[in-house]
Amino acid sequence: MRIGVGIFLVTVGAIIAFAVRDTSGPIDFTVVGVVIMLAGLAGMWLSYRVANRNHLEHDDTAIIKPRVEEQYSTEPHAYPLDHEIDVTPTEYKDHPSERR
């Protein structure tokens, strides 16, 4: 049931519960209207819960893959590097064509 159907059921139930005043038969229209309104409210609530299931179950914490987190970690490595890292900007490096 979608939210629109739930709103429709609440509206129809309110009309039956509060506008129809037929007391001659064995059916109490006030009770029928209230039951239809409750069914519409339950349908709207269930529709909202199903539509927002993923949003409601997860918190807003960022999830980073372990490999990516390791790549950008600022902690020193537990193992020494076997080579030095060259941090010289490329415009200051010797180009292979200029070496002789």
Automatic annotation (TrEMBL):
InterPro entries: DUF6458 (IPR045597). Keywords: Membrane, Transmembrane, Transmembrane helix. Signal peptide: none annotated. Pfam families: DUF6458. The keyword Membrane applies. The keyword ATP-binding does not apply. Residues 1-50 form the DUF6458 domain. The chain crosses the membrane at residues 29-48. Residues 80-100 have a biased composition (Basic and acidic residues). Residues 79-100 are annotated as: Disordered. It comes from the Bacteria. This is DUF6458 domain-containing protein. It comes from Kribbella lupini.
